[in-house]
Design a protein that fits this description.
The complex is a heterodimer of chains A (about 500) and B (about 180). Chain A has about 500 residues and is an alpha/beta fold. Chain A has 16 helices and 17 strands. In chain A, the strands form three sheets. In chain A, strands 8, 10, 11, 12, 13, 14, 15, 16 and 17 form a nine-stranded mixed β-sheet that branches. In chain A, a hairpin with a 5-residue loop joins strand 3 and strand 4. Chain A is elongated. The N and C termini of chain A lie far apart (about 60 Å). The model of chain A has no long low-confidence stretch (mean pLDDT about 90). With about 180 residues, chain B is α+β, with helices and mostly antiparallel strands. In chain B, about 55% of the residues lie in helices and about 15% in strands. Chain B has a four-stranded mixed β-sheet with strand order 2-1-3-4, with helices on both faces. In chain B, a hairpin with a 2-residue loop joins strand 3 and strand 4. The longest helix of chain B is centred in the N-terminal third of the chain and has 17 residues. The radius of gyration of chain B is 21 Å and the shape is elongated. The chains are: A alpha/beta (about 500), B alpha+beta (about 180). Chains A and B meet through helix 1, strand 1 and strand 2 of A and helix 1, strand 4 and helix 8 of B. Strand 1 of chain A pairs antiparallel with strand 4 of chain B.
Chain lengths: ~500, ~180
């Protein structure tokens, strides 16, 4: 607790010890200001991306270095800046506070607290824009990042250091998948736990408050940093938010920790950059986005990596989110981010409204590098799942035209129906890897084929409860060995058979 | 002034200085003298409501002996292209261009109390050392500085005022806490 006299004492010492010196600064004058943009005359030696001091505590970022003036975006109220005001160079690029003190806090992209828990006394700072680690500093993605969602961990596995896009229309559960992945990290020991950063870009304040409450209710806020640039803030803040969040995450990355960062969402980030670029009179291109909108996201997502052992062995896994309009993934920003990332999780509103939740379209969702990171046990049970489900969807479409199907086709349909049902999962209820393995083991080995579809989820819940109560050792062996050998296969079969015999 | 106006003013100034041949300073001084003679009619000459013919008559009436000179030609040009509102900016830019050619920089010094001759001379020498060029001082007073002075040379601002020192102390005390 800080006592008032301590503050006074500190101030008195600083005043007594202060030696006034002339301050020499490079300055310019505001020519015009409006729409969050200022044009400044002077500042002849300013650097691109340099932080500028405007009057009344407003800060700006020099983005356009032109012949006669400097185009800046303001990171504050433009009404506090007027024509003729003196603008000072700071000589430094934009940086953000970083450190352990940020964990559990909700902060703005500049590191200012938004949660009413007092100032963030950060121990260090890092530049907002950093060049991504090079090839030498990296190693291949080979350690899984469990999201706790069967549909993702079994079919579209994500590795630590991977960039996996979550894409879909509004209200299809994109944020829910990301939050599930964050909540699922809770059970790891604190020193090995994945640190999470959730970056909210252009969202309603009520939505961010809901996310923070969800994380807090599930005990996930204690290892999460929330960086929020809400819809009411200037475009410059929305533009900076993902870079600021990444810098905060990189502090832990370079300390050898595993970090998960969620960008929710990059569509609004691109829109904020479009707004800034148009106001700075940069030439518009496709969909009025500037020419460098690809670089905007590629340089951000390139910062996700798995570092080599020499560099500390940390990882930064990125889950960018893109919102599509009417499932149109061929729009400019979705295609850009699809091409940058290492895979996509497609969510579809028709699946969502037909009760398939998470509404993942497993047919077109992919993970380009995560397969190598999947644990062997999961690979064994889920290996055939993608192909089987693809065949099921083809057959289901064909079966709509006639009822005379051979026995094998009927069996495939029955299996597909049950596997689809089995992949459904409640929101904010992530599952442990060994329980996912047991659940899928029962499904792919046909133990659910004669269970009524409506009873599949009660069967699964009962099976897991039964295993936890009576076969905790088997689950522990799956967790520790991470693969299913013949002995374990026999034990799992016996477990499921025993439960099925008593299931009503 | 809008950024576009400043850019335009600089273009006119550059063209005017070039049109003055080998004696740009004389041309700029002539333009400055003509500008003084136009005091009181500037509003009319810049107004879009007054016909060009009337404006031309006013100009000829005020500056009968200046016809043919580069400065007068510039005034006529600004009238014809309806840019007379830029005259002051063009003049300032032309003066800055001449100063630049002669290695002179303008320094605006604002002090809390009036500067005596000796202080001004010391300050001028210090500013010449800082900028590496000849300095022409322009002085003004502002009691809000409390004490000391500020001097601006091109893009460099030297703040040796008591107000500036207090602001820096305030920043130092609050620094590091977000």
């Amino acid at each position: 607790m800080i006592r008032p006299e301590e503050i006074t004492e500190v101030i008195r010492r600083q005043i007594e010890g202060y030696i006034p010196k002339a301050d020499i600064a490079e300055v310019g004058n505001v020519l015009q200001v409006g729409d969050g943009i200022a044009r400044v005359y002077g500042l002849s030696n300013v650097m691109a991306g340099e932080l500028l001091d405007f009057p009344n505590g407003v800060r700006g970022l020099a983005l356009n270095l032109e012949h006669d003036n400097v185009g800046c975006v303001l990171m504050g109220e433009d009404s506090l800046v007027k024509e003729g005001d003196v603008v000072r160079r700071t000589g430094r690029v934009l940086d953000v506070p970083v450190g352990d003190e940020l964990i559990g806090r909700v902060v703005s992209p500049l590191g200012a607290p938004l949660d009413g828990k007092g100032p963030v006394k950060a121990s260090a700072s890092r530049p907002m824009e950093v060049v991504a680690p090079g090839i030498v500093e990296r190693q291949p993605v080979k350690v899984p990042l469990q999201t706790g969602l069967k549909a993702v961990d079994a079919i579209i596995p994500i590795g630590r250091g991977q960039r996996e896009l979550i894409i879909g229309d509004r209200q299809t559960g994109k944020t829910a998948i990301a939050l599930d992945a964050i909540i699922n990290q809770k059970d790891a020991p604190p020193d090995k736990r994945v640190i999470c950063v959730y970056v909210a870009i252009g969202q309603k304040q009520s939505t961010v408050a809901q996310v923070v409450k969800t994380l807090s209710d599930h005990g996930a806020l204690e290892y999460t940093i929330v960086v929020a640039a809400c819809a009411s803030e200037p475009a410059s803040m929305l533009y900076m938010a993902p870079y600021a969040g990444t810098s905060m995450a990189e502090y832990f990355l370079w300390k050898g920790r595993d970090v998960l960062i969620v960008y929710d969402d990059l569509t609004k980030h691109a829109q904020s950059y479009r707004q800034m670029s148009l106001l700075l009179r940069r030439p518009p291109g496709r969909e009025a986005y500037p020419g460098d909108v690809f670089y905007l996201h590629s340089r951000l997502l390139e910062r996700a990596c798995r570092l080599s052992a020499d560099a500390g062995g940390g990882s930064l896994t990125a889950l960018p989110i893109i919102e599509t309009q009417a499932n149109d993934v061929s729009a400019y920003i979705p295609t850009n981010v699809i091409s940058i990332t290492d895979g996509q999780i497609y969510l579809e509103s028709c699946l969502f409204y037909s009760g398939v939740r998470p509404a993942v379209n497993v047919g077109i969702s992919v993970s380009r590098v995560g397969g190598a990171a999947q644990i062997k046990a999961m690979r064994k049970v889920a290996g055939r799942l993608r192909g089987d489900l693809a065949q099921y969807h083809d057959l289901a479409a064909f079966a709509q035209f006639g009822s005379d199907l051979d026995k094998e086709s009927r069996r495939q349909l029955a299996r597909g129906d049950r596997m689809t049902e089995l992949l459904k999962q409640d929101q904010y209820s992530p599952m442990k890897a060994e329980e996912q393995v047991l659940s899928l083991f029962a499904g792919v080995n046909g133990y659910l084929d004669d269970v009524d579809i409506a009873r599949v989820r009660p069967f699964e819940a009962g099976l897991l409860k039964f295993a936890r109560a009576n076969y905790a050792g088997v689950l522990a062996r799956v967790r520790e060995k991470k693969e299913i050998d013949d002995a374990l296969n026999t034990e799992l079969s016996a477990l499921v058979k025993e439960f099925r015999a008593g299931f009503k | 002034m809008k950024a576009a106006d400043r850019i335009l003013a600089r273009r006119y100034a550059r063209a005017f200085v070039a049109a003055c041949g080998g004696k740009p300073r004389a041309g700029v001084e002539a333009l400055a003298a003509q500008r003084v003679q136009l005091d009181g009619v500037m509003e009319y000459l810049a107004s879009p409501l007054i016909p060009a013919r009337v404006k031309s008559d006013i100009l000829n009436g005020r500056l009968p002996a200046s016809k043919g000179a580069a400065a007068f030609s510039l005034l006529e040009l600004l009238l014809s292209v309806r840019r007379f509102n830029l005259l002051d900016a063009v003049l300032a830019e032309a003066q800055a261009l001449c100063d630049e050619r002669e290695g002179i920089v303008l320094s605006r010094v604002v002090s809390a109390a009036p500067l005596d001759g000796e202080s001004a001379a010391v300050l001028k020498r210090a500013l010449e050392r800082l900028s590496g060029a000849k300095v022409r001082l322009e002085t003004a007073e502002d009691a809000a500085l409390i004490g000391g002075f500020t001097a601006r040379v091109a893009d460099t601002l030297v703040d040796a005022s008591a107000r500036g020192a207090a602001e820096r102390l305030k920043k130092q005390i609050s620094g590091g806490v977000y």
